[in-house]
Amino acid sequence: MLFADDICITYDGQSEETLFNSMEHDLQQLTMWFESNGLRINLDKSELLIKKKKNLSYTKNVIHLGNDCIYAKSTVKYLGLIIDELLSWEPQAQTIKKKIFPAIGALFRAKKILSQSALKQIYYDLIHSHLIYLINTWGHCNHNLFSQLEILQKRALKIIFNLPERTESSEIFKIANVIPLTLSRDLSCITLAFRSLHSKIHTSRWLRAGVALAKTCPRDQSLSNSARREQSLLRTRPREESLNSDSRRALS
Asked: What's the whole-model pTM score?
């Protein structure tokens, strides 16, 4: 996964030894490529996360890169998302909870001096933005923890619209015209699935190419991954070449 100058590489393997050997080999190759292009890996910002299962431990927790080492951590942060080794997403949810607590206190103190529209803008800037960011990923955390975030969302809305403490949840969201957190999570997951199936995100192209390749040459096991990608790309070029030839004939 590549975003700007941040690179996230994922691996899987049949054994622990195979997994770590692959990681160290690829990092060495990347280091050589970076150095040949005047770049370098920032080891101070490089992190290693090993996906673990309960009651299962690994004997290795470090990868070597020349004379340097990268040690495994229990959590890493990538693009604002805290990923833990069990993929429970509890650290991410706890972090969101800590961030929105002060914002709710700010709403309570400011409700007597600010207008309702200003309070709602504070809600969207300091609370709602944290709640919905990548909710299709971390939103499947522990149910009790997710419910606590929903309660905090409702508490903030009751402060803004000066609603009684025992107001029903449906009434709160109807008055505030805000989507409940659970529905926001479900809507985000459905939207992601729709965009993936209808070529609205960059991964869809490779998914379709892989399906097309599997249908056309199911028995060809000798092709490497890179060769398969090249072959799938070649299948898209005849159409482009025919369009270019038609354009040249029209110009002539």
From this structure: 0.72
Q: Give the integer Cα–Cα distance in Å for 199 and 207.
A: 9
**Helix, strand, coil share (%) of the chain residues, nearest 5:** 60, 10, 30
Q: Above 90 in pLDDT, residue 14?
A: no
The 10 Å Cβ neighbour count of residue 29 is 10
Q: Are strands 2-3 and 81-84 parallel, antiparallel or unpaired?
A: unpaired
Distance CA 119, CA 106 (A): 9
Which residues 6+ apart lie within 8 Å of 47 measured at CB?
70, 73, 76
Structure token digits, residue 139: 């939103």
Q: Is 72 helix (H, G, I), strand (E, B) or coil?
A: strand
Closest by CA to 192, choosing from 51, 184, 127, 86, is 184
Instruction: Write down the pLDDT at residue 205.
Output: 52
